[in-house]
Amino acid sequence: MPTVVNCPTCKAQVEWTATSKFKPFCSERCKLIDLGDWASEKHAIPVKPEFDAESLDALGYDEADFFKDN
Ligand SMILES: [Zn+2]
Questions:
Q1: 69 carries a ligand binding annotation
Q2: Is residue 68, in this structure, part of any structural domain at all?
Q3: Residue 69 covered by a domain
Q4: Using an 8 Å Cβ cutoff, are 8 and 34 in contact?
Q5: 26 marked among binding-site residues
Q6: Distance from Cα 26 to the centre of ligand 1, integer Å
Q7: How many domains would you assign to the chain?
Q8: pLDDT by 10-residue block (mean), the chain, 70 residues
Q9: pTM (global) more than 0.85
Q10: How far is 7 from 29, CA to CA, in rounded Å?
């Protein structure tokens, strides 16, 4: 079974595959909505500058798990 994540914008299930062009979003629309949220500073959660896939690995997460938690 493919890994499935939830679209951060609409929570639709999205297959985490090479062909999922907008992952973790389900569509370009949801991707743009999310970017718009960032631009308007709705996301108040501070992001550590060192936050990246490597630090997630160090904490025992993989990217798919990270997005599921959202
Ligand atoms: Zn969506």
A1: no
A2: no
A3: no
A4: yes
A5: yes
A6: 4
A7: 1
A8: 90 90 92 82 60 68 61
A9: no
A10: 11
